[in-house]
Amino acid sequence: MSLLDVQGVTKTFGGLTAVNDVTFQVPERGIISVIGPNGAGKTTFFNLITGIYKPDKGTIRLGGKELVGLRPDQVVEAGISRTFQNIRLFPSMTAEENIMLGRGVRLKGGYWDAVLRTGKFRHDEAEAHKTAELMLDFVGLSKWKGELSTNLPYGDQRKLEIARALATTPKLVLLDEPAAGMNPRETEDLKALIRAIRDDLGVTVVLIEHDMRLVMTLSENITVLNYGSKLSEGLPHEVRNDPAVMEAYLGRGAAAGEYGKEAR
Q: What is the pTM of this model?
């Protein structure tokens, strides 16, 4: 059974169909990429999985549990966390504090525990500090523990977002363009981090990404969206050599020229 099983999901906004009858499965401990031209519906698809939008039709299940109708925080509790295209750290909080906020969904204390600083609150606070330290170490940011997140280098801010997502103890993490704005060295570091997320933490990874070198060398399977519909799916070499994918990215004439060069 797939860890994530999306069946026939559709979402429209007025007269625009942003996601059209998409079926998508993710195996446990996989590294899967979702790619496509700008406006293909990729981020909307992530928003449907994480409860930001509710699909007009279709089902979304994590480990057999239906997610449609759950709030985003309930989706996180079920085991899915994510990052976003644009960095969404709290700039006036330290790196450690940003991660501690991510851990909040797993803590048991309530409002009055925090107000009265009960034993449960103190236990939760200690546990959140410990998790933050572990995640900072895992992503290689321990030196920035007490630094305001806004002062971190750009690539490290991206890693901090990933660390915050991992602090929720997810089964599946969705990374929305994690390499955007990174230089080649930072991208290689990111590739190693994503592999470690799967290999060392046992967390399944799905990423939206435009860096095709990263996608083709990291992904075990790739799904291509175009105009909200699934255009292609398969192993990296299968997707790379799919004429429909070439046409979507390059246009009909350019794709024909590219394949003509390969034939020669």
A: 0.89
